[in-house]
Design goal:
Structural class: alpha/beta
Largest sheet: 6 strands, mixed
Number of domains: 2
Number of helices: 9
Strand order of the largest sheet: 1-5-4-9-3-10
Shape: globular
CATH class of the largest domain: Alpha Beta
CATH superfamily of the largest domain: Peptidoglycan recognition protein-like
Oligomer: single chain
């Protein structure tokens, strides 16, 4: 495929994966993470340590270099306890991509242009190869909203959507949408239609905040306001 000719991929395999191979048809999603560690070196060390019991299929560093850490036919250990739509344990049917970024704990950074450009190429290749739907390009915080906040509010979901990767609302506030009062139950029903799970938890603020990190990143405060409600209603009716 043309995208592969535009990418140089370095093999740096991790021992952390399920030995049983999976079929191409079982790969239906891409999950994007940040490493959340102080350096690239520490990130790779952890992703290849048998003690850590974590891994990913690909890692992209700050200069745009791509490392292949687990073969796509194997299940990497990146999503942990997770759900999205009809899927449980997203490790089984997804490709995990880690982006080197210190994360919120160590000094959250903007993603670099080189990093994002390579991510776009890699995602386009995977989407074509496995026929992955746009709505199944997800963040770790989408599939595990009570535990994870990556890739965070600085991740450029809007830009990726312009390249055909993932979903992002377009001019949502200029559309006339019928919406109820700002009721948390209605909001959660919208999220359920979109694919979110773990909605029975009493940690509603975490769920709202992670939704905002992706779709309203300039103000991810965990407060259900009119804009957040409108975005949820729009997305619940416009899944591809």
């Amino acid at each position: 495929m043309i995208y592969m000719f535009l990418m140089e991929i370095t093999k740096f395999y991790s021992p952390n994966f399920d030995k049983k191979k999976r079929l191409n048809k079982n790969i239906t999603a891409i999950i994007i993470h940040y490493t959340g560690m102080q350096s690239e070196r520490e990130s790779i060390k952890r992703l290849t340590s048998m003690k850590s019991k974590v891994s990913c299929h690909y890692l992209i560093n700050r200069s745009g270099k791509i490392f292949k850490m687990v073969k796509e036919e194997n299940i990497a250990w990146h999503a942990g306890k997770s759900m999205w739509g009809k899927y449980k344990n997203l490790n089984e049917n997804s490709i995990g991509i880690e982006l080197v970024n210190k994360g919120h704990q160590f000094g959250y950074q903007n993603y670099t242009k080189k990093q994002i450009n390579k991510l776009v190429l890699l995602c386009k290749h995977l989407i074509k190869k496995y026929k992955i739907k746009r709505r199944l390009i997800l963040g770790h915080s989408d599939v595990a909203p009570l535990r994870k906040i990556d890739p965070g509010e600085k991740f450029p979901w809007k830009y990726l959507s312009s390249k055909g990767i993932g979903i992002y609302p377009k001019k949502i506030l200029n559309k006339q949408i019928n919406y109820p009062n700002l009721q948390i139950n209605r909001f959660l029903k919208n999220l359920h239609k979109i694919g979110y799970r773990y909605l029975n938890s009493n940690l509603k603020k975490k769920i709202i905040k992670n939704f905002q990190r992706r779709y309203r990143p300039r103000k991810a405060d965990g407060i259900l306001d009119l804009e957040t409600m409108k975005i949820s209603q729009f997305l619940s009716k416009n899944q591809k």
